[in-house]
């Protein structure tokens, strides 16, 4: 508790109040990253210290503030697996096992540094309150606090490109301000439909020394879905969305 | 300069991946292109060595003609699957071939279509399916007492695919705002005739079953029924809920009407009893901050045998073995073998079980490595089975699993009378 107070006090003293509306800025960041409802193709690469790689290709569909599904397209051992997130509820469906089982945000269905919350990420403004905003080296620094205990990371420090209103780097912290991982947003790309955003997210973690995971976006497209797509019963049928 | 080139050469020779690790990431559009068809498969080799318990009743039943101390078994599995999708329709087929060779049973092979069905999806709310498939009802990890339609899964390897039944099903899904987020209804028709699901139950019947699913107050709820037909009427419910982000509870309750159970009385005479039975399961799944997953489940099997029933069965085998040893007459042992397929030989034949599974993901920063240990405890007779295992999935599409089984129990107990004391198994599986 004392550490938290010291952290907030230090932050407040170091950075005097700015006229920027942090909540609005975070919402802008969310909308610049993705449309509220969209479909996307991503590749996730886990890189081990010796350079060995394991790759996963995924299709994802998101609707509104709290609904996202992810379907694994490759490798063959994971093809057909799917995950569903409805707010704080998360499930994993493995075709052979058949029935969806509940999973948690801190687990990882792919191994490596990215966990389920990173793969099934909702809007930041849906999960976090802005505790502070400041300018750091010509960019914005947002200090975010999780709204509930169920969010994977209690605190985030988000460096935002002042001009593009897109994240450059995010540090994910525990309640005691211990660094869990850092996300680096790279390679801005025009995906069409007015979506210009980083195509690559790299992450490393002091908990996985020498390991790195990378998420690459190939396609993002605004698309609306029926609510029924985001249900346990629909999970085995996600391939038909593509 | 020359030294640097030599150094670079050595580096490239021994650590090529490390040098290439900084290359830019590629994502070819062909990787995500959707094709109307899909082909894939899985091939597996699984040698198993059994160290046999020569005093056990099930050893005497199985090996009375060919006594031995150990048994080496070679198992193979080959699965092929394919699908084709056009518009709102699709078809899916999955075949399974099991091969087994041992010096005891020689070689045998069985090929079956595990799944083979057609689907029509006119909208996200409606789906119609006809063909051979599994339903996988229930929330339990090792057992599913409410899974009234499917073949039972192996509680010692619950993730194995199982063969489906021919059926017609439908899904209707509705989503809502508010505490009830999802409602879905799945009615099922299972016909049983000559050559169609003829191992399901009584012949010449059309069986009706169904499941209502609700996501209510962040809790998964299923209400399940199966009407009287090839099997007696049964109904049940299950639930699953996260109490915290890392702590899940689940349970199942099943009521089965007029369950007919053949059993041996203490005089070794075959009897049958009919009774309404209740089966149930309660379980938890917990994940620690250091990625240790604990699954603990208690299972009450209302269709199971009591400790006295099992004792009568083991006594019957011993009497049969003694008769065979003195006269060469194996009639009693043949009857005992038939009774094994009729219920005594089920994977969980008794009434009360506890299963604890601990699995540690990626210990010592070894990516894709998961050691685990599973303890199956029979609460009726205090016998148990401990299964440690090591799983490695670090090579794309390849799965390596090393497993052992330590089976303990006194005479006349389930695990004490198993044919083997130990088993060692190595499984290599490759997906393509």
Structure characterization notes:
The complex is a heterodimer of chains A (242) and B (432). With 242 residues, chain A is mainly beta. Chain A has a single domain (2-241), classed as Lipoprotein localisation LolA/LolB/LppX (outer membrane lipoprotein receptor (LolB), chain A, Clam), CATH 2.50.20. Helix content of chain A is 14%, strand content 44%. Chain A has 4 helices and 13 strands. Chain A has helices at residues 2-14, 22-33, 116-119, 124-127, and strands at residues 38-47, 53-63, 67-74, 82-86, 89-93, 101-102, 128-136, 139-146, 155-160, 167-173, 179-192, 195-204, 212-222. A 13-stranded antiparallel beta sheet of chain A has the order 6-5-4-3-2-1-13-12-11-10-9-8-7, sandwiched between helices. In chain A, strand 4 and strand 5 form a beta hairpin. The radius of gyration of chain A is 18 Å and the shape is globular. Chain A starts with a helix and ends in a 20-residue tail after the last strand. Chain B is mostly beta strands. Chain B has helices at 2-14, 16-20, 57-63, 307-327, 331-344, and strands spanning 37-52, 70-86, 89-102, 106-123, 126-133, 165-175, 180-192, 205-216, 219-226, 234-244, 247-264, 270-287, 292-300, 352-360, 369-378, 383-392, 398-408, 420-431. The two termini of chain B are 46 Å apart. Chain B has an 18-stranded antiparallel beta barrel. The chains are: A mainly beta (242), B mainly beta (432). At the A-B interface, strand 1, strand 2, strand 6 and strand 13 of A face helix 2, strand 4, strand 6, strand 7 and strand 10 of B.
